[in-house]
Amino acid sequence: MLDLEELLVYSKQICLPDITLEGQLKLKKSSVAIVGVGGLGCAILPYLAAAGIGRIGLIDHDHIELSNLARQLLFQNSDAGKPKVAIAAERLSPSFPKVCFEPYFECLNAENALSLLQPYDLIIDATDNSASRYCIDKACELLKKPWIYGSIHHWEGHVALFTSKENNYRSLFPNGSQEEQDCSGGVIGAFVGCVGMIQAIETIKWLAEMPETLANKLLIINGKTWRFNTFEF
Predict the structure, then answer these.
(1) pTM, rounded to two decimals
(2) How confident is the model at residue 184 (pLDDT cuts 50, 70, 90)?
């Protein structure tokens, strides 16, 4: 059940006909693993914690760099050189004491993917390369778990929710989802945050068992023109 404090904190969410108290309880009982605590992960994490997700795993092996700060707003200058997962969990825990944050200072790979992802209900891709997504895709297929994909290339953003063996990432993107997966080609931090927040919304909708989701659909966003196109696959 929700205690009085939780009822007050999540009151605006609970009063939505799509969520209600029943949906909020589902969120509290849910667990999510976020692979990558970079630009996407830093946008996703606070909103999932604020939504009342009960348990959140953070998987990343990177350290904070000054070049991260323009789009990874959980971090500050004094954090340079520290593990991203540790600082993110440390920064969010005081504001969201009812949420269990579980940091894993590891690089997700074929050897550890099953053991790292198995305890969680839903997996979120917040990585910056197709190799990691293929790994998530395969692990989630074997574990029969849904996962939410997100990526950015310059002004183009992608979000999709994969839910079945037939509809998977490697079938949709046999050669990778973007020409260039890191930020070396340039990116606007606010646009990265926009894509991450869409991933967070889709997570909440799926865990609350709302019918209108991006399940087996690809959303393509143009950050210059604000054209949104959705394709079923």
Answers:
(1) 0.94
(2) low
Q: What is the pLDDT of residue 180?
A: 45
Class of domain 4-232: alpha beta
Contact of 205 with 53, CB cutoff 8 Å: no
Length of the chain: 233
User: Residue 226, class by beta-carbon neighbours within 10 Å (0-12 exposed, 13-18 middle, 19+ buried)?
Assistant: exposed
Alpha-carbon gap, residue 224 to 205, rounded angstroms: 27
Query: What is the per-residue DSSP string for 19-88?
Result: THHHHHHHHHH-EEEEE--SHHHHHHHHHHHHHT-SEEEEE---B--GGGTTT-TT--GGGTTSBHHHHH
Element (H, E) at 179: none
Q: Is the pLDDT of residue 177 over 70?
A: no
8-state DSSP, 118: T
**Measured distance CA(68)–CA(59) in Å, rounded:** 17
Domain boundaries, the chain: 4-232
User: Which residue reads 């309880």 in tokens?
Assistant: 25
- Give the DSSP letter of residue 123: E
DSSP state of 146: -
